[in-house]
Amino acid sequence: MEKEKMTFGEFIRTLRLERRWTKEDLCGDEACLSVRQLTRLESGHSKPTLAKIEFIASRLAIPTYQLMKYYVALPQDYLDLKYLALRLSAFGQEEKLDEMAACVEEMAERFYDQLPEDERVIIWILRCRIRMCRGIKPATRTQIFDDYLEQVQRRKVYGINDLLLIHVYFLACQLIEDLLEEPFYRQMVDCLLEQDQHLKIEEWFILRDVLIACLTAGLQYGLAYKHREMLALLEQMMELTQDYQKKAVVYLLEWKCAMMFRQDVALARKSYQQALAFSHVLRDTYLRQQLMSEWESDWQEYGK
């Protein structure tokens, strides 16, 4: 078959075999492209993202433009819905979760067939996140999820989709006993504390949410590793962006860390009072009730 008439998968497979390369040769350390992902690309079962096209071109030492004809940009309407779903905040409020779910389902209904595998995984992740925010344990992890999680572990710099994957993993750790392992937690914390340097400032809210989920999982598992540094980064990002949407939640985490890890009841009480004051400013009675309930529970367990 003439190369000009080949599909993307057929084309890169031909180039790979011309070099007498195995899939492992092309993928290298699998930080950017795993063998399983390459298999799905070559078989035509998934579409390439721009990042994967650029990586494959560099590995094959060919100009990127030779592969660009196979790239289809993500629809702007899809990106707008994805951003909206990520920006919506819900502190256990069903109406907000319903709004997030509506965004995600519209993404799936309108665009799923057009999307590369990476974005299809994100739709699955966002659905999982909404279910877990409702307290529903996630279904059995898929091979594709594990494939992407393994890739993330090999990276030092995370993209938006990587952060969403890490976020949903930490949410799962809060619902599934013994899922979180301390070496993995420490590795993720070390990397997350560096990610603000690699993201646009308008993307910091995604890192913020991941740090909140990370700290929450650490509290549940009794892991105090670098909790002060994570809280400090959260405060810094909120001040620099003037985005205080999750300020009360950060105060909540501050009081929990003060109680559990430092036995500092005075600091915990101060953070609790600041969280209550902020909920009053927002006129969010639901949030205020949740904070009071959390404080009462923590006081009974740690404050006396």
TrEMBL record:
Task: Read off the SMART domains from this record.
Answer: HTH_XRE
Pfam families recorded for this chain? ComR_TPR (PF18710), HTH_3 (PF01381)
Q: Where is the HTH cro/C1-type domain?
A: 12-67
Q: Which InterPro entries match?
A: ComR_TPR, Cro/C1-type_HTH, Lambda_DNA-bd_dom_sf
The terms under GO molecular function for this entry are: DNA binding
Protein name stated in the entry: HTH cro/C1-type domain-containing protein
